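debug: dumping io for the single-chain case to check the tokenizer round-trip. Nothing else runs in this session.
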Amino acid sequence: MRFSSNLVENAVSSFAQLPGIGKRTALRLVLHLLKQPLEVTNQFATAIQKLRAEIKECQICHNLSDYELCSICNDNRRDNSIICVVESIRDVMAIEETNQFRGKYHVLGGLIAPIEGVGPAELNIQSLVKRVEDGAVKEIVMAISPTIEGDTTIYYISQKLKDKQVVVSSIARGVAFGGELEYADEITLGRSIVSRIPYSMGE
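debug: decoded output
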């Protein structure tokens, strides 16, 4: 792809670094922005800069937040006794779309994957254990994608919590094995949350 402008080429290259965006799509986005009023493109650029500079990680659940605590952890109407453990922030958003869960969350930030060099120490597991040890939590819902890495992570966390006074459950397998939670439809995911089952380390 040849460009008559270095400015356009640089902008296209920047957009093309985003996941799922190829050079042709990046060019369409750049040309679209060039057709917009200058104030629109300035707002776009400011929003990205502000996002990168000011976004925070919730000190309790590791979700994205504008403040030290996210809006979910700050919501007194939510059930503090139930924590839904998820792999990523996208999974929190997917579950929230179902309107079937009114507890709190805990974002691990990934899954245990030794081949990729990701061990328990790289994930937000110890902070989850601490939340349980604080005594208010009665149930941990493992809403983790049913993959080999997901099952390994669930087993490890269950082992860490086996001597704690907490029930460990997992979402029902309405989500196909090997599937990702963020791609499950809302009805299937919602039913999986509602129909969660006790987790057995023998499975």
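debug: round-trip ok. The two ends are 52 Å apart (CA to CA).
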